[in-house]
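Structure ticket #2291
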Amino acid sequence: MKNPINRRVLLGAATALCAAALPTLSMAQAKIELIYSDTVTEADPRATILKDVFGKSLGPEFDFKPYFGATLFKQGTEPVAMQRGNLHLANLAAFDVQKQIPAWSIVTTAYVFRDHIHMKKVFDSDVGKELFAMMEKQMGIKVLSVPYIGTRHVGLKPKKKINTPADLAGIKLRMPPGEGWQFVGTAMGANPTPLAFTEVYTALQTGAIDGQDNPMGAVKSMKFYEVSSQIVKTGHLIANNLFAISLAKWNSLGPAQQKTVQEAADKFAAAVTAQALKDDSEQEAFMKQQGLDVYSPDVAAFRKHVLDVYSKSKFAADWPAGMLDRINKL
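Resolution: structure written out below.
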């Protein structure tokens, strides 16, 4: 005689199985989405580092979704997208912060940082803490880390020799859109032209612009050297990004989750900085191999001229009292 199947037993087992499955389903549904936007292309080393270092450091609890090449948001629009809740993370330019917080123009001033070490000291100091606090209070955006991305130099298509700011007169120098960026070009002595990063190669190729200013690592990754004749080592900006998260997203995370994101951001900044320093030491030789003339102008003349122009500009009026002296003393 066959043993009768106890329906209660079967129902109990099925209920137990469903209950066991629920935590797994709940965990899958509870993944924390982090949407990121950047202007660099996916081929850029910074994009690779972001995915390999930051993304992987987050672990399975997060669903990290990076978008590159300004395909999600145009360059300069990321802060507003973060404020509207459409974007969680971005590598922001200080110039885009300056649009909303004029006091930030102090750290977008050409030649205000002596080198990448000085830049890091400034952002790690009380000066940096004050500037970051302004962003949180006035913009609702939190800075996680500040990676160094190289020193910006002037790259030109024309073969005109550049030694002082006067030599840049009439040169159509591409600068990113935005008043702060454009003023850098003006202070350098050039004729600044606003243009998105992704459009620079074609503009150089067609002669719509005469030059651009970027770290040599970016010049290589974007192949600007193919449509240039020289790089003038002005070293006018110690380039950096503000790796930031919307404050609303940050506040939605638990303490352990915040710790994970912060540690991942610190690792990302360290890796990007290391890559930029490597580029600084190697790319000059590469540019020369490509036939470009790479040389240093009268940097002291550039520094004196540029800082004099800034001191007489409206931007200096927005600088917090005494902050420039504090920066210079670091």
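Closing remark: Residues 255-289 form the longest helix (35 residues).
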